[in-house]
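Hey team,

Sharing the NHL repeat containing protein run so nobody has to redo it. Sequence (275 residues) first:
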Amino acid sequence: MMVLPIVYFYLCLYITLVNSQNPGVLVNQPKFSPCATWNITGITFSNSFAVGTNPGTVFIDKNDTIYVTDRTSNRVQVWQNGSKNVTKTISGGLNDSLGLFVSNNGDIYVDNGYTNNQIDKWMVNSTNSTVVTYHDGGRCYGLFIDINQTLYCSLNIHIVLKISLKSIGNMTQLAAGTGTPGNTAYMLNWPRGIFVDINLNLYVADGNNNRIQKFSYGQLSATTIVGTGASATIDLNGPSAVVLDADGYLFIVDQNNNRIIGSGPYGYRCLVGCS
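Structure output:
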């Protein structure tokens, strides 16, 4: 997700795109044809003037509005669907933000942990932020809100925390990891992108372990589903993001290999950046 410039990869003619119809799902989960392929050449969507030299997260909501954390200028840039120009800028008190999540009603949650150790929230049409929660783990590389209104944050201290947005006081709980880097089923090493499905299973891009971990609901022990330690999948090098489409197939940013990996009915394959 930290690749500049930001690009779109157009889909082949026979791909089918529809948004998930489950009203409880908080993210844009398109449905793809199993035969989908992507153009090998990307079209530049934005340059460093708009998003800086080191953008953090790219997020696309269910209305196809695009959000990008601009770490260089300490802001979030927003493009409405169909616009080539920035339509909104969110700033104020941010410092080198990484993680970003936008809820169905338009509320924006932003990592503000580099020096402030907090997660901020901008309510829709608001110009001021509120602090959702404080934590002691530095920055959130990934943010996600599940169907039960629980906010997840992957931290560079090798854990994933979760915070109920419905409870008074927003008490944090451990969702994954031990706080010590390692490669056992209970441990993580620099967790980055995260995703929670409708069954509340947590998927973690375990960056320094070169794998994708799946933590079943309520479990602190994970199963390696892609990468080092998983059989008959594909090798990864520093995965930084993982998402699921409407059919539960994975899409992975394999950052150090400069490519995007996808799963399907016939296994894993390279989709973009393939040599």
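The domain at 6-272 is CATH 2.120.10.30 (Neuraminidase).

Ping me if you want the raw files.
A.
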